[in-house]
Specification:
The complex is a heterodimer of chains A (230) and B (410). Chain A is α/β, with parallel strands linked by helices and 230 residues long. Chain A has a single domain, classed as P-loop containing nucleotide triphosphate hydrolases (Rossmann fold), CATH 3.40.50. Helix content of chain A is 36%, strand content 28%. Chain A is built from seven helices and ten strands. In chain A, strands 6-7-8-3-9-10 form a six-stranded mixed beta sheet, with helices on both faces. Chain A has a four-stranded antiparallel beta sheet with strand order 2-1-4-5, covered by helices on one side. The longest helix of chain A has 18 residues. Chain A starts with a strand and ends with a strand. Chain B has two domains: 202 residues, no CATH class; 138 residues, Cathepsin D, subunit A, domain 1 (Beta Barrel), CATH 2.40.70. Chain B has 14 helices and 14 strands. Classes of the chains: A alpha/beta (230), B alpha+beta (410). The interface between A and B is medium-sized, with 33 and 29 residues.
Chain lengths: 230, 410
C-alpha cells in the first residue's frame, strides 16, 4: 500500500497586506506518496515555487496545514524545521546556488558536514555520489568554473548525498539547454527509480513534465488538475 | 544526528577563510588598518609610558628618592632647627630590606651665596658622598673635584651658578645660612668643583657641601632628611606604609607629594593611555562593522542557501564572528610584530634636546625611551578580541535574521 509522505490540507498563502495583498495559493489540498516523481506545473506566477517552498518547510502557509510523515510542520519550531530540511529534504534551486568559495566536491560535502559526518565518511560518500552521477572529473574544480549543467548536477549530488526522503527541485532546467535538460531529467528519474527517493519538481517545461509520473497543474494559486502521467 | 564539533569547526573555518580570501583586496586593506591601529596604540603607549616613567625617574633620581623622611614641620620651614638626629645603626636596622636600593641622609636648607661680584639664593645640600650612589650626585659630570667625604669643607656649584657668580674653581665664596640658634652665619667655602646637569634649574639653585662639615658650621648634629630609594621603578605596594610605621615620629613623603604636579601628570598619563586606546579602537570597530555588514549583504543569497539547506542559525553567526576573529587575530600578530620592530628602532630613544626648556619643565630626560608596559599590551590583546566580537555581532545577527526564502529570491 502506498504511503503518504507529505500532505497539504487547505493550504492558503497570502503575501502582502490589505491593498497589496496577493493570494499566491488558495485552498490547496494534496498529498505526495512515497516514491512518486511529481511535477507541479503551470504558467509563471501561478504559485508553483510558493507551493514547493511550503512543502519544503522554507515557507509557512497563511492558513491550512502541512504534514510530513504525519507530523504537522506548523507545530515545529524554527530549529526543528531547519533540522527537518537538513535531514529529510534535499533541494535543487532554479539558480544553480552552489557556494562559490567551495569546490564541486566540497559543495557536496557541505551537507555531510552539517550532518556531522566524520571526514573519512564524508569523503567516501562524496566520491560515491559524484561517481554515480559521472562528476568525478570536476570534483576538485571550483564551483564558479563549472558549466551550467555541471553546476546543476553538482547541486543534485549535494541534495542527494544526505539521503533525503524528499527531493525538491524548483525549475531545475530553467538555465539549461535541451540536451542538458534531458540529461538532468534522466538523472532525476534514475534517482527516483533506483534510490526510491520521492522527487517533487516545479516546472513549466513540458520536457521535464514528460519524465514525471504525476502532474499537478496550478492556475492562479489553485490546483486545477492533478493527474498521473502515462 | 548531532553535529560533531570538529566537523562544525572545519566547516566554519573553511567557509570563513575562503570568504575572506574571496574579497582579499578589501580584507587586506582592513587587515592593514588593524595592524596600523594596533601598532599605533602599542608604540605610542610605549612612548607615553616611557615619558611617564622617566618623569618619575627624574624626580626620584634628583635628590628626592622614592620616599623622604623629615621632621614633621620641616616642609613648611626648611631650616636646620627642624632637623632630627641621625642614628646610623637604627636606620640601618630599620631599612634592611631587599627591596631597597639604598638610603642617604642630608641637610637641605636655604642659603645665600656671595662671590666678589654677585649674590644668589640657593639650596645648600649637605651630603655624604659615600651614600649618594642612589642619587644623581654619583653621576654628575664634575669639573675640578667633588667632595671627598662628609667632612670635606669645600663646596661644589652648578655651572650656571658659577657663571652667574662670575667666579672660578678654587676661588672662595661666602654662604649665609641660619644656624641651630636661628642666627645668620656666614661661612667661607672654597669651590672644589663645578657640576653639569640636564637641569639648568638645578645648576642654578643647588650647591653641595659635606654633611659633617655643614653640621659643624651650623653647630648641630642634625640632618633634615632621610632619602630612601627602592630598587624598583615605583614604590612597592606596601613600601610607603612599612617605612611610615618604622619611623612614626617623622613625616613620610613619597615622590607624589614631593612633586604634586608630576603626580597629577603621572595619573593623567594613565588615563590618557586608555582614552587613546578607546578612541582608536572605537574608530576601528565602526570600520570593521561596516566591512562585515557589506560582506553579509554581498552574501545574502549564499547565506539564504545555507540556511535553506539546514544550516543552523548558530553556525551562520559563528561564521561571521570567525571571519572577524581571523582578521583581528592576524592584525594583532602583525601589529605586535610591527610594534616590536618600531620599538627596536626607537630603542636608543627620541632626542628631545632641541626642546630643552620644555623638556626640563616637564621633568623629562632629554631622550625619551619607550617603555613597554605588559599590562598595556595585555589590554590591547584583550580589547582586540573583544573588538572582533563586538564588530561582528551586528552583521552576524543580520545574517542570522535573514529569511532563507527572501535571501534566495534576492
Amino acid at each position: 500500500m502506498a504511503t503518504e509522505i507529505l500532505t497539504l490540507n487547505n493550504v492558503t498563502r497570502i503575501y502582502g497586506k490589505e491593498a497589496t495583498q496577493v493570494n499566491a495559493l488558495t485552498d490547496v489540498s494534496l498529498s505526495i506518496t512515497k516514491g512518486e516523481f511529481v511535477s507541479i506545473v503551470g504558467p509563471s506566477g501561478c504559485g508553483k515555487s510558493t507551493l514547493l517552498n511550503i512543502m519544503g518547510a522554507l515557507d509557512q502557509p497563511t492558513s491550512g496545514e502541512v504534514h510530513f510523515d504525519g507530523n504537522s510542520l506548523d507545530e515545529m519550531s524554527r530549529g526543528e524545521l531547519t533540522d527537518l530540511r537538513l535531514q529529510k529534504f534535499g533541494f535543487v534551486f532554479q539558480a544553480f546556488n552552489l557556494l562559490p568559495v567551495l569546490t564541486a566536491a566540497e559543495n557536496v560535502q557541505f551537507i555531510l558536514q552539517l550532518l556531522g559526518f566524520a571526514r573519512y565518511e564524508r569523503q567516501s560518500r562524496t566520491r560515491e555520489i559524484l561517481d554515480a552521477l559521472g562528476l568525478v572529473d570536476v570534483a576538485d574544480r571550483p564551483a564558479t568554473e563549472l558549466s551550467g549543467g555541471q553546476q546543476q548536477r553538482i547541486a543534485i549530488a549535494r541534495a542527494l548525498v544526505g539521503e533525503p526522503a524528499l527531493l525538491f527541485a524548483d525549475e531545475p532546467s530553467a538555465n539549461l539547454d535541451s540536451t542538458a535538460t534531458r540529461e538532468l531529467c534522466e538523472l532525476l528519474q534514475q534517482i527516483n527509480t533506483d534510490r526510491g527517493i520521492t522527487v517533487v519538481t516545479a516546472t513549466h517545461d513540458p520536457l521535464v513534465m514528460g519524465y514525471t509520473n504525476r502532474s499537478i497543474h496550478l492556475e492562479d494559486g489553485r490546483v486545477v488538475e492533478d493527474k498521473s502521467n502515462p | 544526528m548531532k553535529q560533531s564539533l570538529s566537523s562544525r569547526v572545519s566547516l566554519i573555518y573553511a567557509l570563513s577563510v575562503r570568504n575572506l580570501w574571496r574579497q582579499r583586496r578589501r580584507n587586506t586593506i582592513l587587515l592593514v588598518s588593524v595592524i596600523c591601529a594596533i601598532t599605533g596604540v602599542v608604540v605610542l603607549n610605549s612612548l607615553i609610558r616611557g615619558m611617564q616613567l622617566q618623569m618619575v625617574d627624574q624626580v626620584v633620581y634628583n635628590l628626592n628618592g622614592h620616599i623622604t623622611l623629615h621632621a614633621p614641620d620641616y616642609r613648611s620651614d626648611p631650616a636646620i632647627t627642624r632637623g632630627f638626629l641621625e642614628d646610623f645603626e637604627e636606620f640601618t636596622r630599620k631599612l634592611d630590606s631587599e627591596n631597597l636600593a639604598g638610603w642617604a641622609t642630608r641637610i637641605k636648607i636655604p642659603a645665600v651665596v656671595m662671590s666678589e661680584r654677585e649674590t644668589r639664593g640657593v639650596q645648600i645640600v649637605g651630603l655624604d658622598p659615600a651614600q649618594e650612589d642612589i642619587s644623581v650626585v654619583a653621576d654628575l659630570p664634575i669639573e675640578g673635584s667633588f667632595l671627598a667625604n662628609s667632612a670635606d669643607n669645600r663646596i661644589v656649584l652648578g655651572r650656571a651658578l658659577l657663571t652667574q657668580l662670575r667666579t672660578k674653581i678654587g676661588h672662595r665664596i661666602v654662604v649665609v645660612m641660619q644656624d641651630i640658634n636661628s642666627k645668620s652665619k656666614e661661612v667661607g667655602f672654597q669651590i672644589a668643583g663645578v657640576y653639569d646637569s640636564d637641569s639648568e634649574g638645578m645648576e642654578k639653585h643647588v650647591i653641595f657641601a659635606g654633611k659633617g662639615a655643614l653640621q659643624q658650621f651650623l653647630d648641630s648634629k642634625s640632618i633634615t632628611e632621610l632619602s630612601i630609594r627602592f630598587n624598583t621603578r615605583l614604590i612597592p605596594p606596601d613600601g610607603l606604609e612599612s617605612i611610615s610605621q618604622s619611623f612614626p615620629n617623622l613625616e613620610t613623603v613619597d615622590w607624589k607629594n614631593i612633586d604634586p604636579i608630576l603626580a597629577f601628570m603621572y595619573e593623567s598619563v594613565n588615563a590618557m593611555v586608555y582614552i587613546w586606546l578607546a578612541i582608536v579602537f572605537t574608530a576601528l570597530v565602526f570600520g570593521l562593522m561596516n566591512t562585515f555588514i557589506t560582506a553579509v549583504l554581498e552574501r545574502t543569497q549564499e547565506i539564504g542557501l545555507c540556511k535553506s539547506m539546514g544550516m543552523k542559525s548558530s553556525l551562520v553567526l559563528y561564521q561571521v564572528v570567525t571571519e572577524s576573529l581571523i582578521v583581528m587575530f592576524l592584525g594583532l600578530i602583525g601589529g605586535l610584530l610591527l610594534s616590536w620592530g618600531v620599538l627596536q628602532l626607537l630603542g636608543d630613544g627620541i632626542d628631545l634636546s632641541a626642546f630643552a626648556a620644555g623638556v626640563e619643565m616637564l621633568n623629562l630626560a632629554p631622550k625619551i625611551r619607550p617603555a613597554v608596559v605588559w599590562q598595556d599590551v595585555s589590554i590591547v590583546v584583550i580589547a582586540t578580541v573583544f573588538l572582533a566580537l563586538v564588530a561582528s555581532l551586528y552583521p552576524a545577527i543580520r545574517a542570522v535574521r535573514l529569511d532563507p526564502l527572501i535571501a534566495l529570491r534576492d
